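Sequence design from tokenized structure. All designs in this work follow the same two-part layout: the structure record, then the generated sequence. An example of the structure record is given first.
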């Protein structure tokens, strides 16, 4: 069991490390860091725009991170914020044309990275793998919220 845990932990760590390195390299052209890619790709799916609370939920980030990232992306001309209040709290973030182009570029590059990373896998294996990852993520999310039980359930 320990061997399986170590293999799992190391593989997840290595995937994450290399993925973040690739994302960082791709985001350099926009003067941004790798974590900005998550926001670009998420916002690209929502042309009507998204609020800060929605971004928190969709990206799994807290309000401070969303605020900081959106501010940076606004300064870079990738995002606009349409505020419904004079004090600038609330409102909807939308990608600018430059932001849409950047998101499409990053999306294509991320797709290429995933395709090349899984090149040795059949479509069936890939589908099973992604299903397994989704299941593990959902179970770990629940365990992190509820806490790890004292005893293994049968």
């Amino acid at each position: 069991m320990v061997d399986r845990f170590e293999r799992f932990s190391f593989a997840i760590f290595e995937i994450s490390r290399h993925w973040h390195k690739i994302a960082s390299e791709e985001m350099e052209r926009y003067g941004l860091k790798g974590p900005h890619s998550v926001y670009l790709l998420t916002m690209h799916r929502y042309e009507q725009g998204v609020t800060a609370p929605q971004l928190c939920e969709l990206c799994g980030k807290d309000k401070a991170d969303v605020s900081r990232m959106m501010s940076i992306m606004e300064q870079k001309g990738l995002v606009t914020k349409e505020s419904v209040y004079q004090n600038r709290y609330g409102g909807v973030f939308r990608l600018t044309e430059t932001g849409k182009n950047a998101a499409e570029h990053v999306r294509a590059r991320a797709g290429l990275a995933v395709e090349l990373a899984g090149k040795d896998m059949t479509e069936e294996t890939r589908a099973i793998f992604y299903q397994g990852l989704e299941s593990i993520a959902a179970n770990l999310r629940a365990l992190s919220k509820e806490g790890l039980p004292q005893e293994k359930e049968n």
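The helical segments are 2-27, 36-44, 52-59, 63-75, 97-117, 123-146. We note this feature because it recurs in several other targets discussed in the main text.
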